[in-house]
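User: Reviewer 2 asked us to show a designed sequence for the structure in our supplementary figure. I'm pasting the structure tokens here. Could you produce the per-position amino acids so we can include them in the response letter?
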């Protein structure tokens, strides 16, 4: 009887460790995806802003535009 209980406990511990590793991998993957999505979103917003500025100033000759980011507070 002790051997059966001991075996069940060991199987539970191994399964628990594997589940924890899988959950950790899922969390890491999700946060990496979220980070990449936010980065892409910010780049897209910056490109759209540059496009709008260039569109407004396309008829003005001899204008060179440089966009300087404000420091984040």
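Assistant: Here is a per-position design you can include in the supplement:
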């Amino acid at each position: 009887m002790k051997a059966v209980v001991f075996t069940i406990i060991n199987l539970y511990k191994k399964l628990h460790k594997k589940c924890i590793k899988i959950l950790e991998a899922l969390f890491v993957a999700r946060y990496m995806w979220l980070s990449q999505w936010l980065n892409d979103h910010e780049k897209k917003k910056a490109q759209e802003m540059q496009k709008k500025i260039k569109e407004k100033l396309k008829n003005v000759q001899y204008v060179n535009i440089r966009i300087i980011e404000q420091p984040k507070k």
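For the response letter, you might also mention the following. The helical segments are 2-56. The chain has one helix and no strands.
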